Amino acid sequence: MPHSVNWHGKPYYSLDAYCKNTYGEKLWKVSLNAGLSCPNRDGSLGSRGCIFCSGGGSGDFAVPFYAPPSSGPFGNGNAFELACQESLAMISRKNTGQKYIPYFQAFTNTYGPVPYLERIYRLALSHPLTAGISIATRPDCLPGPVMALLSKLKAEYAPKFIWVELGLQTIHAPSAAFIRRGYPLSCFDEGLSKLCHAGIPAVAHVILGLPGETREDMLSTIRYLNSKGPWGIKLQLLHILKDTDLGRLWETDPASCGSFPTAGEYLEALIGCLEQLRPDMVVHRVTGDAPKNLLLAPKWSGSKRYVLNLLHKCMKERGSFQGKYYRQGQNASLPLPVPGNL
User: Fold this and answer.
1) I need a labelling partner for 84 at 20 to 30 A (CA). Which of 4, 125, 249, 308 fits?
2) pLDDT tens digits for 148-162?
C-alpha cells in the first residue's frame, strides 16, 4: 500500500490509527448533548430538521451535558464529570486509552450564544484527561464571533486540538434539496475555507445511499472533497429511522427512500469511495450506529461489528486500500492542518 504512515493493519487511514500514531494511544469519544438547537429546527430555516434527522439531532447516544450561566465561567465541572462517566459506562467494554475526546454531537454545536459556547468548550478543554474536543456543526453556523472563539481557544489550549465536523452529506443540489439541508455547496466551501485558514482541522460528513444518487454521484462527492482537502471524512450509510420524515416516507413508499437493501451493496459503494479517497485523509467513520428501537432500514446495519468485519475481509481479499485509484497530482486547494501532539 503506497502510504507513509502506519495504518495499524487496516486498509484505510482510520481515526484509531491516527490517534495511536499521534498520541501514542487509542482515544475514546464522549458524546455530549449540550442542549443546543439547529437553524433547521428553530424556524430560522425550517422546523422539521433534515429529512433523516432523529429527535436526538443525530446524537441519539449522547448524554446530556449543560453548563448554565449560574454555574460560573467554566460551566459545571461536576455535571461534566457525570456526563463523562455515563458515556464511559456505555463503552466500558471497549479497549481504550487514558485520554478522551468530548464530542459535542447532538444538533448544531456552534449554534448558540458565544458566551455559552465558550463555557462548554472551556470546560471540556480544561479537563486534564481530554486530548481535545470535537464539535459537530453546519458550515452555515460559523460566523465571525464563533471563528474568533475557536481561534482563541486553539491558541490558549495548545497542544490540545479542536476538530470541527461539517455536515456536507452530498455535493449534489437535488439530493441536498430532498434532505432539506438548507444551504448551497458554496456555503460548505466557505465554512471549510474558514476552518482551514484558521488551522482548525475539519471533518466532512458524507452520506452514502441518498435517494436517487448513483454510485458515480457518490464518487463525485469523494473526488470533490479530494480537491478541497478537509483533514478528515466520515462516511455514513443512510439510516432510515422511526419518527423522521424519511421514516414516514419509507413506511408508505420504501422504493423512494434510497439506502442499500444489502450489506454487499453498501460495501461495493463504500470500497469504491475509499479507493478514490486521498490516502492522507483521516477516515473517522465507515458505517454508523443507530438505536435499534428506531432503526427501520437497513436492518443489517444494526450490527456495526458485522459491517466492519465484512468490509475489512472484502478489502483484504481484493487487495483494496484507501487511495488505490486516487489520481496522483490531484492536489487539494487548501492545506491539511495537523493538530499538535500532546
Assistant:
1) 308
2) 999 999 999 999 999
With bands split at pLDDT 50, 70 and 90, how would you rate the model's confidence at 337? very low
Q: Which amino acid is at 43?
A: G
Condensed to tens digits (0 to 9), the pLDDT of residues 37-81 reads 999 999 999 888 899 887 755 655 677 776 655 544 434 555 566
Q: How far apart are CA 166 and CA 282, in angstroms?
A: 14
* Dist CA 324 CA 277 (whole Å): 8
Burial of 116 (0-12, 13-18, 19+ CB in 10 A): middle
- What is the distance between the alpha carbons of residues 317 and 320, in angstroms, rounded to a whole number? 8
Question: For 110-214, where are the alpha helices, taking DSSP H only?
Answer: 114-126, 144-156, 173-178, 185-197
Specify burial of residue 53 (Cβ count, 10 A radius: 0-12, 13-18, 19+): buried
User: How far apart (Å, rounded) are the C-alpha atoms in residues 200 and 195?
Assistant: 5
Q: What is the pLDDT of residues 98-147, one digit of tens each?
A: 788 999 998 999 999 999 999 999 988 988 888 999 999 999 999 999 99
> Peptide bond before 2: cis, by omega within 30 degrees of 0?
no
Check if the beta carbon of residue 49 is closer than 8 Å to that of residue 57: yes
202: closest CA among 149, 247, 245, 162? 162
Query: Of the candidates 288, 42, 12, 270, which has an alpha carbon nearest to the alpha carbon of residue 1?
Result: 12
**Cα of 73 vs its chain's centroid, Å:** 28
Can you give the length of the chain in residues?
342
CA-closest candidate to residue 138, choices 183, 199, 193: 183
Angstrom distances, CA of residue 252 to CA of 150, 220, 297: 44, 30, 13
Contact 140, 112 (CB under 8 A): no
Angle, alpha carbons 220-238-267 (nearest 5°): 65
β-partners of residue 205 are: 167, 234
Q: In whole angstroms, what is the distance from residue 314 CA to residue 299 CA?
A: 20
The C-alpha cell that represents 302 in the structure block = 444494526
User: Dihedral sign, CA of 326, 334, 106, 159?
Assistant: positive
DSSP alpha helix (H) spans, 29-97: 77-90
